[in-house]
Design brief:
Layout lengths: L1 E2 L10 H12 L10 H21 L4 E6 L2 H14 L7 E5 L4 H12 L3 E5 L9 H7 L4 E5 L13 H10 L3 E5 L15 E5 L10 E6 L24 H36 L4 E2 L10 E5 L5 H7 L3 E2 L15 H5 L4 H5 L1 E5 L6 H22 L1
Parallel strand pairs: 1-11, 3-4, 3-5, 5-6, 6-7
Antiparallel strand pairs: 2-8, 7-8, 9-10, 10-12
The protein binds pyridoxal-5'-phosphate.
The site of pyridoxal-5'-phosphate has 12 residues, from helix 3.
């Protein structure tokens, strides 16, 4: 199988698996218990926390582990609303956000929050002028992702944070697709990340919180994470996340260069007739979201079962729903149904990319011949 679905998840790095194994097999102590073994597990979690913080490279805050980035985003949004100062009841977000943000915002709107979902341009980018006009003294939080999971488009987050801070609003950023792939933008107060997108294990995410801007707890109980998030932490998952973050930090530039080479090879191998969805200038190049007129993307997936790639977002795949992100770019139903997402990264070889793209181009041409 050729795996080209790096936005959905990434293969676990061998170094990560090795670091996790002892915590699965022998070291089973509860990290919150006072025994020597408990202390050892707690210490390993603190090392992992520092590794994630170092890879994120923000100053003046700390990371709390969560069960996923979805949890981190729910926590950031709901917990910030719970602590909102009087008179600040507005959230501004963007139409191309992940469902973990959009659906949570919609839920909050149902609870009385005043929600504004801003459109993007045909390139997938938020217009800063539009945001500036929307910002007022009622805005509590601006939530914008760094790198889009479906189309790879990067938002000008540092500038967004500057504008939001001028209006004394907080900034939440979903950096799930950015960590380890691009340099994280400075400025946000809350940042959500996920281990399984950086060659770590599934089932663990984190929320970086600027000191003093921590959201109110979402999950109540033992208060294991700084009194802000409850539940026994898994040393195995934390250690795996830490090892993945360390590798991401060390290899970020090398992985970035590798991905750039793969992008060029893919574009060349696909040949003419394909259109890139979203900006090609402001983009993480490990995400190649393309369309080809009159191609049925679902049929391509069925025809090429030994190549793992996606129809738009992995979350929307199979649902039959057209992608909300492609729709936000202005694509109609037909164009969205002709779009595929190829995602590659650290362990993808050029031979794999070229082989897969040749076969995709051939399958698309065959479809065209059959339908002619
Ligand atoms: N945000 C983005 C941009 C994502 O791509 C994903 C995963 O697909 C998530 C959030 C949710 O992450 P998790 O799987 O850790 O809940």
């Amino acid at each position: 199988m050729i795996y080209l679905d790096y936005q959905a998840t990434t293969p676990v790095a061998p170094e990560v698996g090795k670091a996790m194994l002892p915590w699965l097999e022998d070291k089973f102590a509860n990290p919150h218990s006072p025994s020597r073994w408990g202390h050892e597990a707690a210490a390993a979690i603190e090392v992992a926390r520092k590794q994630v913080e170092k890879a994120m490279d923000y100053k003046g805050g700390s990371v709390a582990f969560t069960g996923s980035a979805t949890e981190a985003l729910n926590w950031a949004l709901k917990g910030t609303v719970e602590k909102a100062p009087k008179g600040r009841n507005r959230i501004i977000t963007v139409a191309t956000e992940h469902a973990a943000v959009l659906d949570t915002c919609e839920w909050l709107a149902g609870q009385g929050v005043d929600l504004t979902v801003l459109p993007v341009g045909p390139d997938g980018r938020l217009d800063l002028g539009l945001l500036e006009r929307e910002l007022d003294e009622r805005v509590l939080l601006v939530a914008v992702m760094m790198v889009n999971n479906e189309i790879g488009v990067r938002q000008p987050l540092t500038a967004i944070a500057e504008l939001a801070h001028k209006a004394e609003a907080l900034v939440l950023s979903d950096a799930v697709q950015a960590l380890g792939r691009v340099e994280l933008c400075k400025g946000p107060d809350l940042v959500a990340v996920s281990a399984h997108k950086i060659h770590g294990p599934k089932g663990i995410g984190a929320l970086w919180m600027r000191k003093g801007k921590e959201p109110a707890p979402l999950i109540h109980g033992g208060g294991q994470e700084m009194g802000l998030r409850s539940g026994t932490l898994s040393p195995m998952l934390c250690v795996g996340f830490g090892a993945a973050a360390k590798l991401a930090e060390q290899r970020c530039n090398r992985d970035f260069d590798h991905v750039q080479r793969l992008w060029k090879a893919a574009i060349h191998a696909l040949g003419p007739g394909w259109i890139v969805n979203g900006s090609t200038d402001h983009r993480y190049l490990g995400n190649l979201n393309i369309r080809r007129e009159s191609v049925d993307a679902a049929r391509l997936i069925a025809d090429l079962r030994d190549i793992a790639f996606s129809l738009g977002s992995a979350c929307a795949s199979g649902s039959g729903r057209p992608s909300h992100v492609l729709k936000a770019l202005g694509l109609d139903y037909r164009a969205a149904r002709s779009s595929i997402r190829l995602g590659f990264g650290r362990y993808t070889t050029q031979v794999e990319v070229v082989d897969a793209c040749h076969r995709l181009a051939k399958a698309a041409l065959e479809q065209e011949k059959l339908d002619a």
